[in-house]
Amino acid sequence: MKYDLVDRRCVVTGANSGIGKELARNLAYFGATVVLGCRDRDRGGRALEELANDSGNDRLSLVTVDMASRASIRNFVRQVTAGGAPVHVLVNNAAIMPSERRQGPDGIESSWATNVLGPFALSNLLLPTMRRSGDARIVHVASTLARDLDLEDVQFTRRRFRAVTAYAQSKQALRMLAWGLATRVPADRVSVHACHPGAVATSLFREQQGWFARALRLGRAFLKSPEVGALTPTFVAADPAVQSPSGRWWINLQPATCKFASDEEQITRLWRLCAEMALCDVS
Ligand SMILES: NC(=O)c1ccc[n+]([C@@H]2O[C@H](COP(=O)([O-])OP(=O)(O)OC[C@H]3O[C@@H](n4cnc5c(N)ncnc54)[C@H](OP(=O)(O)O)[C@@H]3O)[C@@H](O)[C@H]2O)c1
Questions:
Q1: What is the domain-level CATH number for residue 55?
Q2: What would you measure as the largest C-alpha separation in the chain, in angstroms?
Q3: Domain that holds residue 206
Q4: Is residue 2 domain-resident?
């Protein structure tokens, strides 16, 4: 895999570890200007230093962002777009799988806030810049572990909180938001995609216990490395052939059918709910 991305400015969230770091490393190798969006300045700084040294690319920068916080996302967007800088690629990669129900800084259940509302707000707030930049692309790093979306109870106030259910709900929603966004923006300006990186050995599952942790331990030998896990997200972010048609779901570098793409009524309901919760002015 090799691309010339010297004219592309890319933003990757959660770029200090796992799949996001390897994806950012690939984009840096391809010559892109890369903004690493990380929540912790020290962890982000270490990743920045490693990727800059490795790639020899001096156009990498770190901007801190807490994807669970509306104020932090707005501040991030202000910094990323300062001086009219373009954004050609946004990869919504950051995510969590908390073991128990917690609330983020805005009082919203943390996996819904981080994995769904954060990418929704960031995509919509960066959209005007990306439309202007042209030939731009938004990539949602989602998952085949996607189910149990309950639009009446996205924050688990009525259901018992289960880590895997909350995560799977968030990844179903993220895929549906990609399809919602793809129908709202002209594909020649901004093309929107979602992808599955595979089952990858990262720190995503670090809080898990019980059957899921046991299954992960048993299956560890079959998990991909982060480098291999980053291949499909890198392809979707970088390959010129992905630009059109917009709104595709990618697994193993190939387009696949997404069972959530056709339910327009649910997508519209989800979109409205996210716009309300993220306090984003989007129609
Ligand atoms: N691993 C898999 O098998 C797998 C399978 C399917 C999909 N995915 C998806 O792949 C993506 C990357 O996950 P990963 O497996 O590479 O896990 P990871 O190593 O835990 O990476 C997640 C990244 O997100 C960041 N992050 C978490 N909460 C954040 C917040 N509030 N604000 C900003 N950044 C935040 C983390 O930062 P910290 O270091 O500060 O925590 C970390 O850099 C996720 O979207 C995940 O759902 C993973």
A1: 3.40.50.720
A2: 51
A3: 9-277
A4: no
Q: Which residues line ligand 1 (CB under 6 A)?
A: 13-14, 16-20, 39-40, 43, 65-68, 93-96, 114, 141, 143, 196-197, 199-200, 202-204
Confidence band for 5, pLDDT divided at 50, 70 and 90? very high
Residue 281 has a pLDDT of 66
Domain count, the chain: 1
Predicted TM-score (pTM) of this structure: 0.97
Based on its alpha-carbon atoms, the radius of gyration of the chain, rounded to whole angstroms, reads 17
Angle CA 194–44–137, to nearest 5: 25
Q: Is 216 part of any domain?
A: yes
Query: What is the CA(72)–ligand 1 centre distance, in A?
Result: 18
Q: Are 180 and 126 in contact (CB under 8 A)?
A: no
Asked if residue 1 belongs to a domain, the reply is no
**For 83-93, what is each residue's pLDDT tens digit?**
999 999 999 99
In a domain, 200, yes or no: yes
Tell me the backbone φ, ψ of residue 154, rounded to 5 degrees.
-65, -20
Task: Render pLDDT for 178-208 as a digit per residue (tens, 0 to 9).
Answer: 999 999 998 889 999 999 999 999 989 888 8
